[in-house]
Amino acid sequence: MGYKLTPAGLAALLDELVTSRRVFGPVRYAGKGRLAGTDLITYGPVKGLADVVWDARTTFSPKEVFFPIKESLFYFSHGEITESALKASEILETVVFIRACDLNAVTRLDKIFLENGPAADNYYARRRQHTHFVLMECQESFPGCFCVSMGTNRATGHQAALRPEGSYYLLQALAEPWLSLGERYGQPADVEPVWVQENSLTVKVPDRVDTSLFQHELWREYSSRCIACGRCTLSCPTCSCFSVQDIFYRDNPERGERRRVWASCQIDGFTDMAGGHKVREDRGERMRFKVLHKIDDFRRRFGINMCVGCGRCEEVCPEYISFARCVNTLSQLMNGGAGA
Prior knowledge:
Layout: E1 2-5, H1 7-17, E2 22-29, E3 40-45, E4 70-77, E5 80-83, H2 88-91, E6 94-98, H3 100-114, H4 122-128, E7 131-136, H5 147-150, E8 160-165, E9 168-173, H6 178-185, E10 187-188, H7 220-225, H8 231-235, E11 242-249, E12 252-262, H9 283-302, H10 312-316, H11 323-334
Parallel strand pairs: 2-6, 6-7, 7-8
Antiparallel strand pairs: 1-9, 1-10, 2-3, 4-5, 4-12, 8-9, 11-12
């Protein structure tokens, strides 16, 4: 069903929605950008229509809503172990306003945490089961996006799709509560989702990657340029690496908790092993690992590329390292070219 809503109607719809659900979406934090005098656009709690930012890409992805940066797995005390429980607020149904590329990224995370072994990751699954999505339609591409090349400009798995259209909003309701909300606050209308048809940036993913490229001089560029800050992976909507930490409480060293905390294959120390051995100390090797995992290893296992073409990694990199350029160079090399 489709509905046409006035700004006042959509505002009233959201006012009702937030009374029974947690709602997250792109919001603006004034003066919090990485450059002086700039704002940070990222995912945060939405209390009303005025909070939602429609005309900008977020710096960070929505994954931390259901995959927290820091999460307690269990608590231990004098030999007893107690699994952590969700807070009352975390059990509430959660609605996330999300772009098509990020919704496709959720599909990748689901495969990693729910389909990647004999059992699903319970800590991810218990949050994910309460999380639902509203597609924020992109009527045109943001600078640096290459979602069309990655096939992620279209999406499924959402309860509703929404976009501003002139002085109104158009809602495609696919499930409750959006069918009831649309009926209550909007007028029936023919609504079909709008998808981005082209990006200014085109990326050609190679059909295969030959192992001879593992030692190619291409990676030496990144050995000297990358500073191992990890911004690319922490902003990426599909990166899911974490480390596990045991925390002992100061007041009683026999009590504590085990946590998992976001980590990154690009950060120093990630591959350190007992005895001091470092698996990938060279930063060019780390770049190789990340790129090939995004466009080759993951596809071999799950049949789709891990990268969704959101362009965040390039936007946040202080060294202006281009993931897209690297992939295009690999494609040229595999096709017998000299690279770029």
